[in-house]
Amino acid sequence: MTSTLSVDDEIQLITAGTPGASGSTCTPELAEGPWVFDLQAPSYGPGASMADPIPAETPRQGQLPEEYKSASKVELDARIRRAKETLGDRVVVLGHFYQRDEVVQYADFVGDSFQLANAALTVPEAEAIVFCGVHFMAETADILARPSQAVILPNLAAGCSMADMADIDSVEEAWAQLGEIYGTEADADGRVPIIPVTYMNSSAALKGFCGRNGGIVCTSSNAATVLEWAFERGQRVLFFPDQHLGRNTAKAMGVPLERMPMWNPRKPLGGSSAAELLDAQVILWHGFCSVHKRFSVAQIEKARASHPGVQVIVHPECPMPVVDAADASGSTDFIVKAIQAAPAGSTFAIGTEINLVQRLANEYPQHTIFCLDDVICPCSTMYRIHPGYLAWVLEEFVAGRVVNQITVGDDVAVPARVALERMLAARP
Ligand code: SF4
């Protein structure tokens, strides 16, 4: 995809078979309004995670009022701008890097999940934080927000398939099984048998679990620092939910692959023997991001053949062979900064979500920037947020009604905050 159109405009053109439109999408359903999927059987909707099994208890979004579904782009634009102007500092709109441009244009802050949760703290006068991201991000914002602030997720169906791959019951069960093997005795250096580490992309319940059990949260920017913190305090780590971030980070720190068994929650002892678990240094939860799993070594080879001198940068949620074959790997923030710092005329092939890649291509026309995957397949759940939902939640707030509020009870929020504070303190 090399046009200057937004990803969504490109999808509409391709799906309509418009003459001159080029490229392909992973499903024609991407061109439908996200409300088409709200009343169907729960699914992540069209996009990269559409084949992932969705947990039964996943939040559902009720039907959006007809006036928002049928409104034109121009009408929605006017309504969103009017509502934002009326509300002024009473509301702050946050837009994740992977969010569609049609929504990001209204964001007061754009960034990754943790940057956005922190950005909301810089607007203490805001009564409402409208998080145009996914469910776990809104939960984190609520954990960090002032008690009087309401965190709103415009479409409740905007979950995260990777976060959903590790639920609290399965993690508690794994912890109990591991406890039977490891016991509770610290070693001669005072290190406990195991430390839980959860990626930011996880439910609040798992962050709370880490807070209660001497564990910590990490982001894709600080995963190595956090693992060092954990190895100082524990003999081994249970890392969830993203196996790839865990494996890529630990491998770069020198942990041998054979000491990183996978924990499959559907198998006894996660699918490993007790001996393998006793020898383990990092136990990797069987989770992954379907957006980043799409990238392959073959795509990298193709990019190098067609663009000699190309710099390939991928996100560490990509599988290990892809990270190994790339020139660099890092968080969304790392990718943005690498492009900002490059001399004009550089060429980048990027392995992360298409909305961010296309936005970077438009913002840095002095470079050639393209997505490693030439099939347009956005994050299904980010894609569930549409300007229609944003207009709806903002106009409801203008009318004095808070809809789609995400709240995390103190029983979870208090220990989750402990795990997040450990992460901040572990910063190098
Ligand atoms: S890109 Fe992957 S990890 Fe991020 S919200 Fe989408 S499914 Fe979840």
Automatic annotation (TrEMBL):
It is an enzyme of class 2 (transferase). Its EC number is 2.5.1.72. Binds 1 [4Fe-4S] cluster per subunit. Its cofactor is [4Fe-4S] cluster. It comes from the Bacteria. It catalyses: iminosuccinate + dihydroxyacetone phosphate = quinolinate + phosphate + 2 H2O + H(+). Pathway: Cofactor biosynthesis; NAD(+) biosynthesis; quinolinate from iminoaspartate: step 1/1. Iminosuccinate binds at H96, S113, Y199, M200, N201, S220, H315, P316, E317, T332. [4Fe-4S] cluster binds at C160, C289, C379. Residues 47-69 are annotated as: Disordered. It is found in: Cytoplasm. GO terms for molecular function: transferase activity. HAMAP family: NadA_type3. Catalyzes the condensation of iminoaspartate with dihydroxyacetone phosphate to form quinolinate. This is Quinolinate synthase. The gene is nadA.
